[in-house]
Structure formats: structure tokens, C-alpha cells
Write a structure and sequence with these properties.
This protein is an alpha+beta fold. The protein has one helix spanning 21-31, and strands at 32-35, 45-48. It contains one helix and two strands, in the order αββ.
């Protein structure tokens, strides 16, 4: 049986280790999105989430005229 060595082109983030991985992954999930590595097919690539544009007060249901 032969195994091919795969050289990944994307940086991987494996986390702090098995003891605190769940907490680390929950924190990362709030600010990042997880992707599969195209080379090794492990889900170890984390990229920052794209910024969501701020909502206007009218979109949130605030009455802007009452504040004046």
C-alpha cells in the first residue's frame, strides 16, 4: 500500500488541541467561516466572515422623527 504525500496550498488552522477544541471552534464560528482544503479535503481552513453592512434605523423599525 502506497500513500501519496499531499502538499496543501492553503494555510490550516487546527486549533489549540483536543481539550479546548470545542470552545475554540465555537469562538471561531462567530467570526469566521470554515472551508474544506482543496488539497487534503480536511475542514481546517478558516476565513473571516464578510462584513455585513450596517442596517439603517428605518430598516430596524426605529422611529427617527420621534428622537428629534
Amino acid at each position: 500500500m502506497t500513500t501519496e504525500r499531499v502538499f496543501c496550498t492553503e494555510p490550516h488552522a487546527y486549533g489549540p488541541g483536543p481539550m479546548h477544541w470545542a470552545v475554540w471552534a465555537a469562538d471561531m464560528a462567530r467570526t469566521h467561516e470554515q472551508y474544506e482544503c482543496p488539497d487534503c479535503h480536511l475542514w481546517v481552513i478558516w476565513r473571516p466572515r464578510t462584513a455585513v453592512p450596517a442596517a439603517e434605523p428605518e430598516q430596524l423599525g426605529f422611529d427617527t422623527e420621534a428622537a428629534e
